[in-house]
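## Example pair
The file below holds two records. Each record gives the amino-acid sequence first, followed by its structure token line.
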Amino acid sequence: MQTSYEPENPPVSADLAGRIAALLPRGGRVLLSGGGEALARAAAAAGVFLTERDLSFEAFEEDGDNASGSGAPARRFDALVLAEPREEPSATSHPLTGLLHRARNLLAEKGRLFLLAPAGADPRDRIVALSETGFVILDEDWTHGTGLFQARRESIFVTEYQEGDEAAILALFRGSFHVERTLERWRWEYAENPYGNRVISEAFAEDGALVAHYAAYPVRFHRERPGGDGPDNPAETLLAQQVGDTMTAPEVRKIGRGPTSVLARTVRHFYARFCAGRIAFNYGFNTGNIQRFSMSFVRARRIEDVPFRVRAVQGEGVPPLRPPRWLVRKLGGYRVERVTAIEESDGRWDELFERVRGSYGFLIERDARYLGWRYARCPDPQYFIYAVFRRRRLIGWGVFRQLGDRLFWGDALFDPRYPEAARLLLAQVLAEPAHGATR
């Protein structure tokens, strides 16, 4: 029978019809829903047995098959060719996800789906819809104008974060990294970021178990234009995302290979749902397998090693690092203070960033909003912040954390007109008896 929405769907070209027919399984049961006479003829010429079928909700109900997925339909197909309607269906009639759910329910396990997307359709929407309805995408081709997605029915569903998933996320984190992460830390990182929240893609098995996770938190970058900032050459603010918490359950790490692995499917959903056309870039700090994975399947570029420098506080041959004497500090107008809270209304942090950003060119927007969230309100690990002033003006700050006798200095911003400020700040921090650092 002819599909009910066939008149709204332009027929595929003879070239595309021939290509699809060559991909269809011989000797199997193939369902054709749309695509025009050229596709039907090409399939017949290739010796493929076709059944035509309308996948609209009404026809599906009338035929007695199970549209909800709670039970097996009367027939299973080895492959299904599904042509989307010319016009995007409304949310109240036949959304693409509804069609894909019904298509999946008609396919045998590992059955192939050939989805024909209209010319000009957004590929991201198709990637998200296929991932969320239990398909792994094998290929995507737009060379014929019409989009052709090849996918396979699988038992993994990739979707975005839903309220309440954090308990499963924390359990997967514990099993993957053997580190206990608190719910407060998770909420701070993924639910309380002032620049955006819940940027998370997750993969679930059919029994509802969380088996993969890929997430990021948004960060704003500042970039100076060549030639300096001015009315005709304004600086740019770029929204980026720092990627972290990439993890998969051990039991699914051997499912698929490369781009069809469970992690790769999760990443593909993430980029389609949260990245393409929305942010400037993603970045992260990683090594080993996940770095190789990112370079191979996410088109990441390795920029440089993260510098890690170690200095002994005291010992043979180590010059002492002491704060300047009181008189020197007094005459120079310097003072160093520990900061316990940063409010967005405190303009000193924003004023420092605006004053010095041109000297750095490209950097995270380290203003009061960022510092208050990123460090002052982070529940774990515990950071502490020191600021250095010259008279009443803030000229620099540093963020530290401590592990035993090791003091880690992880972030900072200084006015380059006062190069001595960094040494003054560090010397004051090391002089604090509470730290007792040796390195």
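Second record, same layout:
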Amino acid sequence: MDHYRGEFRRNVTAIAPAALARLEAHSWPGNVRELRNAVERAMLLAEGSSLCAEDFAGVSAGDQGGEVHRLPAGGVRFEDLERDLVFQALERASWNKA
């Protein structure tokens, strides 16, 4: 968190117990690199000064379930996926591109 706080100039200083429990329950098949990516994503998307469980939506919480992404039968057009993700990010940031 310290590394990304400086790199992204974010004032995220804590992690909620529920978020920590989610991270501890995950099996981490990608090891440290997967954890680093999850923390980086959470730091970018966090809305407050503390990371919450929702900031780790892509991390499964063991038997508690978790967000699962399934490939549609017809496949995915990456241009459409990218456009949708950019749109979602802009909406979440109140259209602030900075």
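Notes on the second record: The chain has a mean pLDDT of 83. The first helix runs from residue 2 to 8.
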